[in-house]
Amino acid sequence: MRAEIITIGDELLIGQVVDTNSAWMAEQLNESGIELFQITSVHDDREHIIAALDEAFRRADIVLTTGGLGPTKDDITKHVLCEYFDTHLIEDTRVRAHIEQLYADRPDVLNRLTATQWLVPACAEILENRVGSAPLMIFHKGDKLLASMPGVPYEMKIAMTEQVLPYIESRVKSQESRAKIIHKTLQVTGIAESSLAILLEDYENAMPAALHLAYLPKDGVIRLRLSSYGELSEDEMQHWFERLQQETKDYLIAVSDEPLEVLVGNSLKSRHQTIATAESCTGGKLASLLNKHAGSSAFYYGSVISYDNSVKEQVLGVPAEMIAAHGVVSEPVVRKMAESVRDLLHTDYAVATSGIAGPTGGSAEKPVGTVWMAWATPQGTTAECFQLGKLREQITDRACTKALVELLKLLNR
Prior knowledge:
Maf protein; 413 residues; Alpha-Beta Plaits; globular; alpha/beta; Molybdenum Cofactor Biosythetic Enzyme, Chain A; five-stranded mixed β-sheet; 15 helices; 17 strands; 3 domains; single chain
């Protein structure tokens, strides 16, 4: 069974909004055994939407659309779908009751534009959107279907999880009609992508034709993803995944596709241990990663963003003489930062970063991209210097990745 996604909205095409919906939807479809064939973004334009629908239905069994369902004039998706499926709008009393209840404490929102939200295409099946006013609409075209959802990410995710995917799965004719899509991912570090490919040459040459290996490098970590689209059993896939782990054992840091911060958090939680950060050049990025996911309060205590020297001195207790003698981007300073924030916040672990993110501020001795890091642990403090590139965002992203990778190694010893 094959699906396509059509995202609708001018804001996606001018870069004003980044399409995070499609990547998340793709993961959910794969987990349900539905192959995603193409993702298309279109303007809020009748002809563009209709052309995209025609093309998608030629290739796919399921078409998922997001966006363009608001009550304002620029949101035309519902009207175009009415035209496409040769139907008209009618009032849906269930949708009206839901919207009136949703905005019961905000009567100012219940105006004539909001009232258009309870008008739905007569031929559509309407599913509940419990967190928003835009109805979830299912259309049928022969044995194919289209599901129309809001573009707001949190609304779309709830709609997809609670309504659309269960609807689709309940109408799959048989388990055989769904490909057994299997992905297995591991993560390695400390080796260049080209060197890794050379290392794995014999492994790749021995793989069955039904198996595919993808290299996904980012910020010093390479994810290796094995994929099978309905041709290998779970046991066969596991055999090849275990062989891949053995081939990469000297560089292996994880046997899952979970983000590094999740792996770190899980390790800390399993030990009932905690962490804090003291950041200079990364400016809070590391803290943001550590508290990004639900449940982070079990292990993450807080951070000191010591961008200015006065914060390093007054909050973290870094002696001014130390900074004068060694500079803020130095081993003694990051060691003191890590140890101080660990003591200050009473945590088991702490990570500190101090570097030159550029584009200015570098020197012959410490060029742009120089980053010192320290990890204060119950066993002591370690520190290391890295050269992480030339571009500011690249440097800070790589610094956060490196900080988590080295922390994960310490936790796994």
